[in-house]
Design a protein that fits this description.
The protein is of the alpha/beta class. The protein has two helices and six strands; from the N terminus they run E-H-E-E-E-E-H-E. It has one domain: Beta Polymerase, domain 2 (2-Layer Sandwich), CATH 3.30.460.
């Protein structure tokens, strides 16, 4: 049977939760960002066998988050995308394109206005 869950966590607990999932054998599936009112909602999805779980952050626009690319190397792709499209501030990226991951006509087109 396939199960799915979403747990909202605090920004301060992001790295410890991600390390815990890595240690349990989960793989990173995707990271998704969107705007909700004046905040950003960032959802990290992980899978292990037939279990799919998500951890979610709700952060204000000015908040900074830590990169999980030191734990899950491919995360740098999603994180650079979030920086380019939303202007989300991400610290300690393993490979940081400095806002040039995509060629965009408009800088941070999905940033809260």
């Amino acid at each position: 049977m396939t199960t799915q869950s979403i747990t909202t966590i605090s920004n301060e607990n992001l790295i410890s939760e991600v390390i815990k999932l890595k240690d349990e054998g989960y793989r990173l599936v995707q990271i998704c960002a969107t705007t909700v009112n004046s905040e950003y909602e960032i959802t990290y999805s992980f899978a292990l066998d037939y279990e799919f779980l998500c951890i979610r952050l709700m952060i204000p626009e000015e908040a900074e988050i830590m990169s999980i690319s030191q734990v899950f190397a491919p995360a740098f792709l999603y994180e650079n995308e979030m920086k380019d499209l939303f202007g989300i501030k991400i610290n300690a990226l393993s490979l940081d394109y400095q806002g040039n991951f995509y060629r965009l006509e408009q800088k941070t087109p999905y940033k809260n206005q």
